[in-house]
Amino acid sequence: MKVHYKPKRNLLETIFQVEILQGMALTLRKLFSPAITRQYPQEKPPMFPGFRGQHALVRDSLTRDSKCVACMRCATVCPSRCIQISYDEDETHKRIINKYTIEVLRCVFCGYCVEVCPVGAITMTELFEYATYDRDTVFFDKEALLDNWDAFIAKTGKDPAYVNPLMRPRGIFESSLPAAKRLKVPEDWTIEGQYVGPKARPSMVGLPTPHTEKANG
Amino acid sequence: MITLTDTQTIDVPVQSGEEDRYHLKMGPQHPATHGVLRVDLDLDGETILTCDPKVGYLHRGFEKLAEHRTYAQNIVLTDRLDYIAAMSNNVGYCEAVERLLAIEVPERARMLRVMVCEMSRISSHLLWLATHALDIGAMTVFLYCFREREVLLELFAELCGARLTTTYTRLGGVRQDVTRSIMKKLDKFVEDFPACIEEYETLIDTNRIWLKRTIGIGQVSAEKALDLCLTGASLRGSGVDYDIRKHMPYAGYEKFEFDIPVGETGDTYARYRCRMEELRQSNFILRQCIDMLPPGPVLGKDAPDLVMPIRAANKLEVDVPAKNALITLIEDRDVFMEGDIYVATEVPKGELGFYFISDGMGRPYRMHIRSPSFIHIGALSTMAQGAMIADLIAIIGTLDVVLGECDR
Questions:
Q1: Are A210 and A138 in a shared domain?
Q2: Beta-bridge partner residues of B24
Q3: What DSSP string runs through A113-166?
Q4: ipTM of the complex, rounded to two decimals
Q5: Choice between B384 and B334, residue whose per-residue pLDDT is larger
Q6: Whether A170 contacts chain B with CB within 8 A
Q7: Does residue B332 register a pLDDT over 80?
Q8: Residue B333, pLDDT above cutoff 60
Q9: Pair B97, A197: CB distance under 8 Å
Q10: One domain, residues A60 and A140
Q11: B294/A175 touch (CB, cutoff 8 Å), yes or no
């Protein structure tokens, strides 16, 4: 397809500078339309569940401690190697965490650690304004990470049993999740309740979908 | 080190006949060079005699870093290549790795990939138009473009949790499904966007200053453009009908209806017109995505876990949940296929290619990135020959380079 150009301006348009007047008319119109600028420090941007912000360790409501089982998945997957974990084993081979640190200055905020955690212990909160002047405040140990969770719950007023899409991704089969992550989520997130285009054709790849499975009985 | 006081001067030896020549180092902090590009210029008055772009100020060694990370971990690096269209890079990388490792992607994930690719194409072209117009002197377009770009970035934030460093795709699919609220907002955007393109065109399309600054500037013929390995809108502006989405479809682009805008004259104005038409075509593809999004999972059944190479998992003959629960990072040989592959995708800037050599380990033996920005910078010296300094700004703008991708 060839791109089309607008016709060359004629003499009258050249003399009266029509195209410049048209541009001015547009900007003048915008002068009276509502402003779209966000006054940032006073007015916060909209935050959505699953935003990759400050790290936190979820505080378990029963034990008042972290849910972490020291499986080392997060430390293994981290592309920037910013998670350090050390643990001891007691006589029943249960792992007891000595150290769990996240060096935020190294972190690239990919969210892989949240994704691979089999028990939903680590998460990323919707807080992002924690810039400081020293390194120590952004070197989180286990206590600081648990405090981050409390601060997040207190600040946003969320339910402590809240699930975000990083912990439980939308649009995958529940059977492919570890048992501890098969949480109750909005219907929108499951495959049964997902958005489908109004003109969607049946799947062509041959992968069984809930819809075709229903049709086949 | 020589220090100068106000009264001291240095005598620079000047060869006879070169008294009017002036050597100017433009950049790397010059705002109109879109990042950290330095251009060494030899000037005769205001005319450019030679133009020598110097790159590498943003070099982070991604190709080497990739050799020490697993295939899944490298997705994070691709965000930082072309950081204003990160989604396209994610898709390009994953398409290449999936073809290397023969991983199947579900239909819904493929269409979601097309959707985010086109969203990032619109957002990248809007940023290009904004900065290009700002360089040439049109301030208002800049503000209007950022108004629409903000909508898309907020959609990205809702979709995957970050505005720019998206890390959205995974090997074998995408990470997050869309929600009804996202599709509703996208639907509204697609509805409103053609009127916004009209606004930009009202401001600059026939504006005589814009025409004077763009028509006939940085002209390349079709043969020359092919010689310089230009791709994307920079090539199509010269009249070569080449778009990987049409000619080597990936991610299911063959199912979509769209046109490839092709210019004629090969100057800055033709490339501008091409990109404006591409905005409309991308919007049209988005409309088809919203209408035709098929049901199903977004991650394939045999998609590898982030920390687990797929072949190793298949060898273990366990079912999918148990496979996902395994955490071993297997670095033995022969878990992956050996061989090499080059897969190119059409990103907003041009042809982004990933070349992999696999020796069977869980990470690439070599990853080469054919980044369009790097190739386009190479064309700068030819295109700027004989132009004015002010035109050089327009030429850098029209090539649409991002130095993060160029230096990688």
A1: no
A2: B41
A3: HHHH-SS--EEE-S------SSSGGGEE-HHHHHHHHHHHHHHHT--TT---TT
A4: 0.83
A5: B384
A6: yes
A7: no
A8: no
A9: no
A10: yes
A11: no
Q: Which residues pair with B169 in a beta bridge?
A: B174
B306 pLDDT more than 70: no
Total domains in the fold of chain A: 2
Establish if A210 belongs to a structural domain. yes
Asked if residues B392 and B370 have their Cβ atoms less than 8 Å apart, the reply is no
Are residue A158 and residue A206 in the same domain, yes or no?
Answer: no
Q: Do B321 and A201 touch (CB under 8 A)?
A: no
In this structure, are A157 and A190 located in the same domain? no
Query: Is A175 part of a structural domain of the chain?
Result: no
Residues A67, A147, single domain; the answer is: yes
A112 part of a folded domain = yes
Decide if A128 touches B, using CB distance below 8 A.
no
Sheet strands side by side (includes B47-54): B21-26, B38-44, B47-54
Nearest chain B CA: its distance from A39 CA (Å)? 14
Residue-wise pLDDT tens digits, A25-57? 888 988 898 888 888 889 888 888 888 888 999
HEC profile of B195-250: HHHHHHHHHHCCCHHHHHHHCCCCCCCHHHHHHCCCCCHHHHCCCCCCCHHHHCCC
Number of Cβ pairs < 8 A linking chain A and chain B: 193
CATH number of the domain bearing residue A91:
3.30.70.3270
Residues A194 and A94 in one domain: no
Q: Which residues of A touch B304 (CB under 8 A)?
A: none
CB contact under 8 A, B208 and A23: no
Cβ-defined contact of A52 to B301 (cutoff 8 Å)? no
What are the structure tokens assigned to B369, written together? Answer: 């990135």
- Flag whether pLDDT at B320 surpasses 80: no
Cβ-defined contact of A1 to B327 (cutoff 8 Å): no
Interface with B, mutate which of A3, A48, A113, A176 (most B CBs under 10 A): A3
**pTM of the complete model:** 0.86
Has residue A40 been placed in a domain?
Answer: no
Confidence of residue B100 (pLDDT cuts 50, 70, 90): confident
Residues A194 and A90 grouped into a single domain: no
Give the three-class secondary structure for A87: strand
- pLDDT digit string (tens) for B32-44? 777 788 888 888 8
**Mean pLDDT value across chain A:** 82
Chain A residue with minimum CA distance to B165: A110
Are both A59 and A153 inside the same structural domain?
yes
Give the residue numbers spanning the domain of A192: 186-216
Considering only alpha carbons, which residue of chain B is nearest residue A14? B208
